[in-house]
Hints:
CATH superfamily of the largest domain: ATP-grasp fold, B domain
CATH topology of the largest domain: D-amino Acid Aminotransferase, Chain A, domain 1
Mean pLDDT: 96
Bound molecules: guanosine-5'-monophosphate
Shape: globular
Strand content: 25-35%
Largest sheet: 5 strands, antiparallel
Oligomer: single chain
Amino acid sequence: MVKKGTLLYGGKAKTVYKSERPGCLVMEFRDDITAFDGGKKAVMKGKGRYNCCVSAFFFQMLEEKGVPTHFIRMLDDHTLLVRALSMIPLEIIIRNIAAGSLVRNFPFTEGQKIDPPLVVIDLKDDSRHDPMLNDDLILALDIVTEEELRTIKEMALHINEIVQEFLSEKGIILVDFKLEFGRTEGGIVVGDEISMDSMRLWDANTRQSLDKDVYRFDKGDVIAVYREVARQITRGKCEV
Ligand code: 5GP
């Protein structure tokens, strides 16, 4: 068992520790749930486990399809061993259906299909409320090179195809989701998490929310929804 070392970074729902293995980190998914820049928060028993299992499941699926991620393996049901990355402070959001901030900020109608999918990139900076960027701003801020930006967008759209197809077979619509990327010596890889906290998911039949919107907008029993979605997604591969 790889032991967790000193605390490296404590986020709103995850904690990252050093590990005794060089180049590896321990990423712990906590039961904390937050929304609206941390303005709303709670602790929900089991939530860390569900998000950890779903993230591990998607990372494994992506690796099998040739998409590099930071995932190495699960250490326990709420902890991953991951490769240390130099994180790129961008939130890459892929949108297949109009919802959330897209509908709040632009004249789209909620539920409107977006084809081809939109890639929206926000600056990862809570103190500035993650402002939306464009390519010129990203390059002017020297966050990534033009080539890295192209790679990140291509990878994000490819991941969207993989995850969208998988979820649609489960009767779940991938409305939108957020990815984060980091650098290794070998190039750009997917980091952070892919979970109900970072995806917007709708039941294909009822269009009910199956993600953090349940918590954001008091739509029901968040933990029951997370448990059921995690069960559907990881069936047979990860005990939840
Ligand atoms: P929106 O811009 O509509 O609020 O979010 C679009 C998508 O990206 C949603 O699936 C949302 O969960 C995800 N997302 C946007 N910003 C963040 C963030 O700061 N943290 C997480 N975990 N997800 C985010």
